[in-house]
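USER:
I would value a second opinion on how I read folds in token form. Give me a protein, with the fold worked out from its sequence. Write it directly below this note and I will take it from there.

ASSISTANT:
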Amino acid sequence: GEGEQQGEGEQQGEGGGGSISGTVLQASDGTTPISDMLIIAITGNEALWYEYEVSTEMDGTYVINDLPAGNYIVCSEDDFGQGYVDECYNGVSTEEAATQVTVSGTSDTPNIDFTLVAQP
């Protein structure tokens, strides 16, 4: 049925850490969720960097758990060829231009949202 919550992704792993969460919607109307969109959080520097990834749920939401404290660049990646332009937070096309998202302690950093444009 509609509005059922997915149970997956709720449980914390052994590592603890913080999380980043948000919703991915179609830019055409700003309300239609995009599921199975890969969301990637990248941290570190060019010499040593780590990538954490997760797919959005049916309702367009995602949570990336077990993140060590630090600054992350969060980007969408259309891995399944759904026809959307990849984007980094906050509404930019490159990692260089991205707004860094800070994770601290075990708290969630919410509202890291994406509205994705269909490819021309």
